[in-house]
Structure formats: structure tokens, C-alpha cells
UniProtKB/TrEMBL annotation:
Transmembrane segments: none annotated. SUPFAM superfamilies: Periplasmic binding protein-like I. The keyword Mitochondrion does not apply. It comes from Aquibacillus rhizosphaerae. It holds the Pfam family ABC_sub_bind. The keyword Signal applies. InterPro entries: ABC_transpt-TYRBP-like (IPR007487), Peripla_BP_I (IPR028082). Residues 29-43 have a biased composition (Polar residues). This is ABC transporter substrate-binding protein. Residues 27-49 are annotated as: Disordered. PANTHER family: ABC TRANSPORTER, SUBSTRATE-BINDING LIPOPROTEIN, ABC TRANSPORTER, SUBSTRATE-BINDING LIPOPROTEIN-RELATED.
């Protein structure tokens, strides 16, 4: 009897010991699961272990050309299969705001800064010499003191400019050929380095032609309509370069050009689709995409910014908007059918 009693007691003890051990195993498993979730939530890696990059994107203002460049930039990075989180910040047309935007990117320790305009690039470079900067929508990278030479990028900055070397010269030749003797009205923000560079190039290209220029400067987009209005009677043609301030208020210039039958020459196809007549332009989505490809090389460690020369746009084309030509009272020249690509006004 005692023997059976002892066996019974031993069985009970065994069951209790097994139960306790099982509980400890479950506790250890749950503890390991919590640690894993905390590690996955660090922000450096995705749930699949893929590295996540953070890119701070600085843009001087919202307008179609810059927006297209930003979309092209993101598309190139997506095509490369990188996992990226973006922080897009607009300076709302005020270069002073580019500094604080860059300061925040530095404080957040982003992996790369995409600077989408000359002021954005200047503001970023002022704030960091360590975080790599890839720019585009910059007209003169050397003149803006971003790099010392096109083939000598900075230690932490390089990119793709938005001005083809022949764009202004070809535009002036077009005006001189089809609007001989015209007084060309120029509206620009003298505070934008890229605009001053282009205006200087226009004036240089006009020397020796039948053309002359009439200039109006603005400080903000609110000044653009008044500047355009004062060109009426003084200008036979209006030529708007890729000035961010003026392009952001281009509708004001288009309204004057249409009402007063003044041909409006613009600096890029997006402005043409808003109502400009003609441009020797480049595609901003394309230069944004190319900038994105350069960013991929930097993020993956394949190259540093110092290894990547500043690039020019790969191609340039004469674009004409037939509808705008009619609105601005321009007599159609059949030669344009053979030399131009045609775009239509896109209603927003």
C-alpha cells in the first residue's frame, strides 16, 4: 500500500515539474518575439531586412517643371528597387526658407538631400558638407558656387543642370528668324542666380542680330502681372526663361500675351502646355530621372558625389503650341511643320 502511495506522489510531482518547465519555455518564446519586433521597428531596416533610406527633398516652389523633376527622381529610385522614405519640403518661393529646410534635414540625419532648384541647392550646401546632395533644375552650377567646375563636383554635391548649352542661342535664332527686328521683353527675378545667368546669355546671344531687349525685374510672383503689363507697347515678343518666380505666376504673362497679341516664348515644355507659344526646351522629368540615377549610385555606395561630374540635359527640341499661336495672333509659318514637335495647352 505504501508502495502505491509513493508512486502516486511521484507522479503528481512529475506533472507539476513538467507544467512549470512548459510555462517557462512559453515565457522565453514570448520574450524573444517582443525583442524581434522592437528591432524591426528601428527604422533602419524593413520587415524583410532591406535597408530603408531617408531622402530630404527641397524645392523652391511648386510648379509643373519642378514637380516633374521630382517625380522623375523618385521614379529612378523606385526602378532601382531601393526602399526610400521622402520628406518633401517647399520654400514657398522664398530662398530664405531653404536654409531652415536644410537645417531640419541635417538634424534628422537624412541619408541624402535632393535639391530641386538653385536656391535649394545653395541652402543645402550652406548647411552640410557631409550629407550627399544631388541637385537638378539648376541652370549654372558653377556660377551659383555649387561646384568649382562641371567636371569637378564638390565633396558632397553633384547633379544635373537644366540648361542645354544651345537652348538660349537656338531660341534667339528662332526669334530673329521669324520675328525679325523685334524688341524682346524679358521678365525675371534678379535675386535668382540661375535667372541672371540666363538673361546674360540672352543678351550675349542677341548681339549681332536684328533684335533688342527690354527688361523687367520682379521680386515675388505677385509682381509678375504688373511687369508683363508694362511691356505692352514696349515689347514685340516676350521671352520667359526658366525663372522660378515668373514661371510660378506664368498665367499672368499668358493672359497679357493673349489679350495683346504678343508672341510668348518660354523656357521649357511645361510652360508651353500652360499657354506659351514656342520653346527650345528640355524634359524636366528626364533630368529628374537622371538625378535619381546618380542618387542611387551614391546611396548604394557604388560612387561618391566627387566621382560624378555635373551633367547637362541629354537632348533639346523645338516645341510649338499651335493653339497658343492662334491666341496670340501669330501668323503660321509652314516651315514650323517640319522642324517642331507640337504640344497643346493642358487645362488645369
Amino acid at each position: 500500500m505504501k508502495k502505491w502511495f509513493h508512486l502516486f506522489v511521484l507522479a503528481i510531482i512529475s506533472v507539476i515539474v513538467l507544467a512549470v518547465c512548459g510555462t517557462e519555455d512559453v515565457s522565453e518564446e514570448n520574450s524573444g518575439s517582443d525583442t524581434s519586433e522592437e528591432n524591426n521597428g528601428s527604422g533602419d531596416e524593413s520587415d524583410t531586412g532591406t535597408e530603408i533610406f531617408t531622402i530630404g527633398a527641397s524645392q523652391i516652389v511648386e510648379h509643373p517643371s519642378l514637380d516633374a523633376a521630382y517625380e522623375g527622381f523618385k521614379e529612378a529610385i523606385a526602378d532601382a528597387g531601393l526602399d526610400v522614405e521622402y520628406d518633401l519640403q517647399s520654400a514657398q518661393g522664398d530662398p530664405i526658407n531653404t536654409g531652415p529646410i536644410a537645417q531640419n534635414f541635417v538634424a534628422d540625419d537624412v541619408d541624402l538631400i535632393f535639391a530641386n532648384s538653385t536656391p535649394s541647392a545653395q541652402g543645402a550646401l550652406q548647411e552640410t558638407k557631409d550629407i550627399p546632395i544631388i541637385f537638378t533644375s539648376v541652370t549654372d552650377a558653377v556660377g551659383a558656387d555649387l561646384v568649382s567646375a562641371m567636371d569637378q563636383p564638390g565633396d558632397n554635391i553633384t547633379g544635373v543642370v537644366d540648361l542645354h548649352p544651345d537652348a538660349i542661342k537656338n531660341t534667339v535664332t528662332f526669334i530673329d528668324t521669324y520675328f525679325e527686328g523685334a524688341k524682346v521683353g524679358l521678365i525675371y527675378n534678379s535675386g535668382e542666380a540661375n535667372s541672371v545667368t540666363q538673361i546674360d546669355a540672352v543678351n550675349a546671344a542677341i548681339k549681332g542680330t536684328s533684335l533688342s531687349t527690354v527688361e523687367r525685374t520682379v521680386a515675388t510672383s505677385a509682381d509678375v502681372q504688373q511687369a508683363a503689363t508694362t511691356l505692352v507697347g514696349d515689347a514685340d515678343v516676350i521671352y520667359i526663361v526658366t525663372d522660378n518666380t515668373v514661371v510660378s505666376a506664368l498665367e499672368s504673362v499668358i493672359g497679357v500675351a493673349d489679350e495683346q497679341d504678343i508672341p510668348l516664348i518660354v523656357g521649357e515644355p511645361d510652360s508651353l502646355q500652360k499657354g506659351g507659344f514656342a520653346t527650345y526646351g528640355i524634359d524636366y522629368h528626364t533630368i529628374g530621372y537622371r538625378a535619381g540615377e546618380r542618387a542611387v549610385e551614391v546611396l548604394t555606395g557604388e560612387k561618391t558625389t566627387a566621382d560624378i561630374p555635373v551633367e547637362i540635359p541629354p537632348a533639346m527640341q523645338l516645341f510649338i503650341n499651335k493653339g497658343a499661336a492662334e491666341e496670340q495672333g501669330i501668323e503660321w509659318n509652314e516651315e514650323w511643320d517640319d522642324i517642331a514637335q507640337f504640344l497643346e495647352t493642358v487645362e488645369e
